[in-house]
C-alpha cells in the first residue's frame, strides 16, 4: 500500500489528536460523515480542494496528510532490511507498515540503530587494539612484567639451593613487579573505560558530536550572544571521548566565527525578505556561499524560512557534518548517493549548483538543494587547495517553470531508480520504474 493511500489514516489520527468528532470535521469540510468515514478508512481517494480544506481545518500542511512525517523512518526500515543477511522482509509493504504501526516501526528502527552502534563499537575497539599506541604500550608493559615475574618465580622453583641474599632479591623483584603489574592493569582498565564510554553509545567521535548538535537543535544561543566556544565546549564535553572533544571544539569555533561574521538579527531579516536562499544572503551580507549555508542551517526552530538541512563532505566525499530533514534523510554511515549535488560540486569548485531533487519512487517530498565546493584552508604557495563541499536543502513544493527534478536515492541498496548510471550495486527493491515528481 503506497503512502498516498494512507492519507485517510493520517486524517483520522490528526482528528483524534485535536479531539474532533468525525461528524464535526465532516460538517466543517462540507461533506457527509459517512463519506468522511470512507476516507478515514482509506476506501476513498482524496485530493484537490477537499484535501486543502481538511488540512486547513486540521491545522497541518497538506503534504503531512499525503506524505506523512515517516520518510526518514521508512528509509531506516529499508536500510535495516538491506543490511540484514537473509532478510525476508516485505519491502514493498514497508510504507504500509510504518503508516499503520508507527510505534512498532520506530521500535524496530531504533533497535537496528542500536545494533549498528554496537557493531561500530566492536569495530572501533578492534581498530584500537591494532593501532592505538597507548594501548599497545600498556599491553607491552604488562607482558614484560608478567615475563619478569615468571622468570624470577621459575628460578626460585629450582631444586638447587639459592643464596639467601639472592633469594631475598628475587622475592623483592617479584613483589615490586607484582605491584607494577597491578598498577598497569588498573591504568589500562581506566583508559578503556574512559575512552570506550562515549564510543559505546555513539560509535565514532563524529557521531558523538552529531548527537550534541542534534540535542541542541543545531542552534547555540550562547555562541550567538558572544560566549567563547572553548567555554561552551567545556560545558558540553563531559561524556565525550578525547577525539570527540577536539572535533566539538573545532565545530563550535566555526559556528562562533560564522555568528560573528553574520549576526543572527541580520540573517533573520534577510530570511524574512528573501527566504532560505544562500545566494541572497551572499548578496546582502557579502559572505561566501558556504558560510551562508551554515548560518541558514543554524537558525532557531521558529525561523520564518522553515527547516533547513545541511550536509558537508571533505575532498574524499566522506561526510563531516549532517543535518537531515524528513524529506531528505542522510545516512549515518557513508555510501551516500553520488547524484546528490554535494558531490558534483567537488568537480566544479567555486560554482554554486542549484537543483530540485527528489528521492526516486516517492510522491512529493522534493527539496531545493544548493551546493558549493570551496577551499578548506587558506591558500599556500605552490600547493593545490583541499576543497570542502557544502549542500544546503529545504523542502520545496511544485517545480519552477519547466525545471526538471533530479531523481536521487539514499543509498544504492534501497534506491528505487532504475537505469541509474551511478549505481554501485543492485537495489533490494528490484527493477522499479522511475516515477515522476
From TrEMBL:
Domain of life: Bacteria
Annotated SMART domains: HTH_XRE
The HTH cro/C1-type domain, residue ranges: 11-65
Gene3D superfamilies per record: lambda repressor-like DNA-binding domains
CDD domains: HTH_XRE
Alphabetized Pfam families for the sequence: HTH_3, ScfRs
Keyword Transcription: yes
Keywords carried by this UniProt record: DNA-binding, Transcription, Transcription regulation
Keyword flag Transcription regulation: yes
This protein's name: Helix-turn-helix domain-containing protein
Protein species of origin: Salipiger mangrovisoli
Amino acid at each position: 500500500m503506497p503512502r498516498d493511500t494512507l492519507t485517510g489514516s493520517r486524517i483520522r489520527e490528526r482528528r483524534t489528536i485535536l479531539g474532533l468528532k468525525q461528524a464535526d470535521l465532516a460538517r466543517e469540510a462540507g461533506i457527509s460523515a459517512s463519506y468522511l468515514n470512507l476516507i478515514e478508512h482509506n476506501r476513498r481517494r482524496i485530493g484537490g480542494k477537499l484535501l486543502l480544506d481538511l488540512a486547513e481545518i486540521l491545522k497541518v500542511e497538506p503534504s503531512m496528510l499525503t506524505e506523512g512525517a515517516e520518510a526518514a523512518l521508512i528509509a531506516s526500515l529499508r536500510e535495516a532490511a538491506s543490511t540484514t543477511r537473509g532478510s525476508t522482509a516485505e519491502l514493498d509493504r514497508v510504507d504500509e507498515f510504518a503508516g499503520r504501526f508507527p510505534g512498532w516501526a520506530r521500535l524496530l528502527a531504533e533497535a537496528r540503530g542500536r545494533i549498528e552502534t554496537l557493531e561500530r563499537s566492536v569495530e572501533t575497539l578492534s581498530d584500537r587494539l591494532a593501532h592505538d599506541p597507548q594501548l599497545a604500550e600498556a599491553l607491552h608493559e604488562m607482558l614484560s612484567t608478567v615475563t619478569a615475574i615468571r622468570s624470577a618465580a621459575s628460578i626460585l622453583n629450582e631444586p638447587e639451593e639459592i643464596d639467601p641474599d639472592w633469594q631475598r632479591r628475587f622475592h623483592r623483584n617479584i613483589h615490586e613487579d607484582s605491584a607494577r603489574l597491578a598498577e598497569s592493569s588498573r591504568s589500562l582498565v581506566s583508559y578503556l573505560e574512559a575512552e570506550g564510554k562515549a564510543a559505546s553509545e555513539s560509535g565514532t567521535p563524529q557521531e558523538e558530536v552529531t548527537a550534541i548538535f542534534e540535542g541542541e537543535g543545531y542552534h547555540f544561543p550562547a555562541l550567538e550572544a558572544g560566549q567563547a566556544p572553548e567555554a561552551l565546549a567545556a560545558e558540553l564535553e563531559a561524556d565525550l571521548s578525547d577525539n570527540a572533544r577536539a572535533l566539538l571544539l573545532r565545530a563550535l569555533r566555526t559556528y562562533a566565527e560564522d555568528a560573528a561574521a553574520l549576526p543572527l538579527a541580520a540573517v533573520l531579516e534577510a530570511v524574512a525578505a528573501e527566504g532560505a536562499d544562500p545566494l541572497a544572503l551572499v548578496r546582502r551580507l557579502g559572505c561566501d556561499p558556504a558560510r551562508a549555508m551554515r548560518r541558514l542551517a543554524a537558525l532557531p526552530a521558529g525561523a520564518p524560512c522553515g527547516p533547513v538541512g545541511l550536509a558537508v563532505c571533505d575532498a574524499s566525499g566522506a561526510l563531516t557534518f549532517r543535518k537531515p530533514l524528513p524529506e531528505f534523510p542522510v545516512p549515518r554511515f557513508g555510501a551516500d548517493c553520488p547524484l546528490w549535488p554535494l558531490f558534483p560540486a567537488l568537480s566544479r569548485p567555486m560554482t554554486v549548483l542549484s537543483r530540485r531533487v527528489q528521492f526516486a519512487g516517492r510522491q512529493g517530498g522534493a527539496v531545493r538543494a544548493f551546493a558549493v565546493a570551496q577551499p578548506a584552508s587558506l591558500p599556500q604557495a605552490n600547493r593545490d587547495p583541499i576543497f570542502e563541499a557544502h549542500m544546503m536543502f529545504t523542502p520545496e513544493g511544485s517545480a519552477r517553470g519547466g525545471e526538471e527534478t533530479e531523481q536521487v536515492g539514499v543509498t544504492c541498496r534501497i534506491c528505487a531508480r532504475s537505469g541509474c548510471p551511478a549505481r554501485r550495486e543492485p537495489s533490494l527493491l528490484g527493477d522499479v520504474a522511475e516515477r515522476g515528481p
